[in-house]
Design a protein that fits this description.
The complex is a heterodimer. By secondary structure, chain A is α+β, with helices and mostly antiparallel strands. Chain A has three domains: about 55 residues, Aspartate Aminotransferase, domain 1, CATH 3.90.1150.220; about 100 residues, Orthogonal Bundle (Arc Repressor Mutant, subunit A); about 55 residues, Zinc/RING finger domain, C3HC4 (zinc finger) (Herpes Virus-1, 2-Layer Sandwich), CATH 3.30.40.10. In chain A, the strands form four sheets. In chain A, strands 1-3-2 form a three-stranded antiparallel sheet. Chain A has a three-stranded antiparallel sheet with strand order 4-6-5. In chain A, strands 7-8 form a two-stranded antiparallel sheet. In chain A, helix 1 packs antiparallel against helix 2. The N terminus and C terminus of chain A are likely disordered. Chain B folds into two domains: about 110 residues, Arc Repressor Mutant, subunit A (Orthogonal Bundle); about 100 residues, Arc Repressor Mutant, subunit A. Helices cover about 50% and strands about 10% of the residues of chain B. Chain B has ten helices and six strands. The longest helix of chain B has 21 residues. Chain B is elongated, with a radius of gyration of 22 Å. The chains are: A alpha+beta, B alpha+beta. Chain A: InterPro entries: C1-like_sf, Nse1, Nse1_RING_C4HC3-type, PKC_DAG/PE, WH-like_DNA-bd_sf, Znf_RING, Znf_RING/FYVE/PHD. Chain A: Its EC number is 2.3.2.27.
Chain lengths: ~280, ~250
Amino acid sequence: MEEGRAERRRRTEALSHPQGGTRRAGVMTDVHRRFLQLLMTHGVLEEWDVRRLQKHCYRVHDRTGAVEELEDFINNINSVLESLYIEIKKGATEDDGRPVYALVNLATTSVSKMASDFAENELDLFRKALELIIDSDTGFASSTNILNLVDQLKGKKMRKKEAEQVLQKFVQNKWLIEKEGEFTLHSRAILEMEQYIRETYPDAVKICNICHSLLIQGQSCETCGIRMHLPCVAKYFQPSLEPRCPHCNDYWPHEIPEVFDPEKEREAGPSKVSKRSLRSRQH
Amino acid sequence: MRTLSCTDSDEGARSQDEGSPSSSNGAEVLRRDPLNKKVVLLVQFLLQKYKKREPITKADMLKFVIKRYKYHFNEILKRASEHMELAFGVDLKEVDPVRHCYTLVNKLDLTFDGTMHEEENMPKTGLLMIVLGVIFMKGSCAPEEEVWEVLNMMGVYAERKHFIYGEPKKVITQDLVQLKYLEYRQLHGDPPRYEFLWGPRARAEITSKRKLEVNATILGAFPSHYEKALREEEESLWNRCSQSGIYCNG
């Protein structure tokens, strides 16, 4: 089966599931397949939509069946996808902690997952924006700063006007978020590219002190410099009256956001009220 | 975090026992199976093509994915198709054995029991079918307002995000137009108005039987003049298919 000589490379597999060595073999039915197809079409979905989607898939393919608990449902699918290096990953929006799900491809560690949708110069524009975002203190890169880099792009020459539209395309396709003329990474990009970002920018990358995941937006301690995601801040400081830095114990100077409550969200109705932007700027 | 090195040097890739993607015992047999990596990459490639509804050729697969392993193409393709079917319910079918063109067919639509009454029971292609149905009923083109009238009845609105279709307005005026299933034309006059027509790809791909199914559920009944129009359309479609050599499954 092999062609030529191949080097044997030993790899250890990190077992990421709680049951230790054993792994329940997943059973895929058309309910799961339809769910997967639809999730794939959307790219990324918030948990509320994911639950509706799951129920829809049951209604189409298995009206009488009991709707499986979402976490088990997804673990089931993931166990079948494991051998394909694809995974349904759960994350949270960085500004207000809404849970989101994306179908993530673990096999390609680069921005090339966007490659089929964008031209070479567009991908390079994204890379430039990504670098500015990662290097920034706030997690945001201004439109001006990004556009000033158009002359350095690989591929076909791009004018600033065109670049503005490409940035909008990134927003529409949920790779970037725009707020007041500045851009940051969409939760989809964070989920899909975390590995790539950590490997490519090991020195510039910021990590949350609480959850140890990639951090783009967050709050930081003014004394020791550790950083935390806004939803991580909310959860960590929720019970305490006097918030103190978990690392250096100094007083935590920033406004503590509220923990995301899906029940409150549902009461507000499907027309989403504009989210409070709790981006705290560091100067 | 699991990674899969993407270099082309194809050293002994870590793999799992083919056919049992998740073995139930802790000890996994690590065999040298470099084909497995290619299978994984081919699945990724096919998924991209499926999402974008682009045609798939053997030439592309060899060039972008298989590369050095071209003598194992059939084996790799077979394994990738099995994964696609098992995990995604998507079938890889060869449509042109001479030029080696393939297409990906959604198996799930075939098992769909067709109760299209409620808003939530429509698959994504259902949106296209509804629009095509409205156009077909009007003749050859339908004004945009009428299309929205029908969609609104099914709980799909232009200015509201839909939990399956996303942005319906974008889907029907841009995405489906780009994919050549629909045409979106501006009419003369002010303020600007638009109409929809069947796109070339819809004409080639949609069989008359499927049209009948869709329209039956929209209308709920067959007025006799409508039946006659359908029959004529079916004949002309069959003639066009035979002439252009496109295989029509009725």
